[in-house]
Amino acid sequence: MSALDEVQAHAATLAGLAGMTPVRLAKVLDGFDPVVAFHAVRSGTHPGDPRRRFRTPARDSDPGEVGRRYERAGVAVLLRDRSGYPSRLIGDPGAPAVLFGLGDPCILEGHPRVAIVGTRSATPYGRQVASELAAELSAHGVTVVSGLAMGIDAAAHAGVVLGGGESAAPPVAVVGTGLDVIYPATNRDLWEQVARRGAVLAESPLGTQARPGVFPARNRIIAALSDIVVVVESHLRGGSLYTAEAAARRSIPVCAVPGSVRSPSSAGTNSLLVDGCTPVRDATDVLVALGLSYAGSSDQHGLPVGRGSSRQGHCREDVGQTPSQRAVLAAVEFQPTALETILLRTDLSIAEVATACDELVESGSLVSGPGWWAQV
Length: 376
Prior knowledge:
CATH topology of the largest domain: Rossmann fold
CATH architecture of the largest domain: 3-Layer(aba) Sandwich
Largest sheet: 9 strands, mixed
Mean pLDDT: 87
Shape: globular
CATH class of the largest domain: Alpha Beta
Oligomer: single chain
Strand order of the largest sheet: 1-2-6-5-4-3-7-8-9
Number of domains: 3
Number of helices: 15
């Protein structure tokens, strides 16, 4: 990680002041550069701190030392108006003013993202489903987002790390503690692997211990980062339902894995299905919801062909193709071409690219694999 500059060091200092919360921090930084905001708080003149609640903590703080502390911990300080801050959060009403990161937060860009969440007291069925679902989605180029908690979260991230393969999409975790406080401690190895292969994010400053209020709050970030939220197991009042509610408020689709009607761990997910959420049986259902093709059987050249594709008697035809199909064909090479590459080479949305790719696979103009397409 590169050295923190003055602005990042002052932002981290403000975030770590005693009594500071994400809501108060957003008010303090609203319209203010972090350096200016810090000195205004320190002098007792900041309009966002009319009671001078943070004046004494600010006077007792040294931004230079705070910055060095983050550097030693290898933790990045991400600001909304700086590169590295997740683009999906920009403009979100619940976006943190300051975000902290381990690993490479930039891996959030260019991949479809699916949140897999659920209860901490997961059943063996739930853990197995979460692990297998995450591994297969990751192998198809989908970034799995979760909370690195016990139960379903840990099973999902373990599925990516252990079962996704070398070419798997990187995992992303959003945690409720500071990035130097691993919670639960039993997840230390998994935490380190997720940070090494992907990114671990938090809005809590270094030193923040686990406490009940931070976990529902972080769930809004998990939802906001995702294209789809999948709830694997949840009790009727499970914390993962906060993530589902946050997604619904943002018009992000919520899916649920059916469970036994006799299992309390599936009472919440079954209730989501009754309310009209899309059922998820396997990764195919999620990929379809994302608009991505699913790798199926292999053709005579050994290339996996997308579901429903046909190669017999077909040749590439430009006649009758839509503008989106022509743009995608121009972007796709004869070698496997990743989704993010096609998006960068066209001005199309993910949904438009996915639809065009599926149509071109169906017509025999393209073949597809886990997260890639190639010309015939």
